[in-house]
Amino acid sequence: MNLFKIFLFLLLSCLVACVNTRPIQYVQGHFDTAQLSKIAIQEPVLQRGDLINILVFSDNFEATAIYNLPNATGYLVNDSGRIQMQGVGELKVEGLTKSQVTDLLNSKLTKFLTNPYYSIRFVNYKITLLGEVTREGAYTVQNEKVNIFEAIGLAGGLTIYAKRENVMVIREFNGKRQFARLDLTNPAVFNSPYYFLKQNDLVVVEQTRNKIENSDQTTARNISLATSVISTLIFLYTVFR
């Protein structure tokens, strides 16, 4: 039986050694840190279909209360790029950043409120990742700022079959669909206007051409190996019975 145990140990060791542990490499090559450090992070702008939450504060609580929704569900940016805000009326917000919305609100409310200030945030700031990532799906971004590597991290990273030299970003902006392809192995990715994702971006990670071929070969190899293991175990059981 000792020989039988030794055989099983060697067999398991062989199986473990056969596992593909090739690491996924991202950015490679030379980094021009002086150039990359100049990249500015762009504040997201409001688009049609965005849902934003706006809370108004001031030194006078009673006067402020009429500008806040009772349930704070948020304001939907309609097809005209406007929101209908309680106590203020219709506001054109499409294309504005949160800072610019603050300026717009100040222009409307400073004559009614003392020292007004605001809490403005996206309620539906999300991105979607599909393809060769560990966990496909839509992910809500709490801080309204995420780059392509952070997004992939949210999805558990790339699989070993990911085509990391050709990751596609699909973006809707001003009613038009934009497409961009990123090479995650090239330091130039940091200079891309698509490096920082925007709300509702769709990231599609394509598979390498040999995935299906490798999958078929792996299946055939595993079946062959399993058959050999079973045959060997039956033989050893017969010998040492």
Strand-pairing-aware structural class: alpha+beta
Major sheet description:
5 strands, mixed
- Physical arrangement of strands within the biggest beta sheet: 7-6-12-9-10
What's the order of the H and E elements? HHEHEEEHEEEEHEEEEH
Mean pLDDT: 82
Distance between the termini: 9 Å
Total helical elements: 6
Tell me the radius of gyration.
28 Å
> Looking at the structure, what is the overall shape?
elongated
Q: Approximately how much beta-strand content do the residues carry? A: 25-35%
**Number of beta strands:** 12
Give helix % range.
Answer: 25-40%
Low-confidence stretches: none
Give a structural overview:
The structure is a single chain. This protein is α+β, with helices and mostly antiparallel strands and 241 residues long. The chain has six helices and twelve strands. It has helices at 2-17, 33-36, 61-65, 98-109, 148-154, 211-240; strands at residues 51-57, 75-76, 82-85, 89-92, 117-122, 126-131, 137-140, 146-147, 162-173, 176-182, 196-197, 202-207. The mean pLDDT is 82.
Topology:
Layout: H1 2-17, H2 33-36, E1 51-57, H3 61-65, E2 75-76, E3 82-85, E4 89-92, H4 98-109, E5 117-122, E6 126-131, E7 137-140, E8 146-147, H5 148-154, E9 162-173, E10 176-182, E11 196-197, E12 202-207, H6 211-240
Parallel strand pairs: 6-12
Antiparallel strand pairs: 1-2, 1-5, 3-4, 6-7, 8-11, 9-10, 9-12
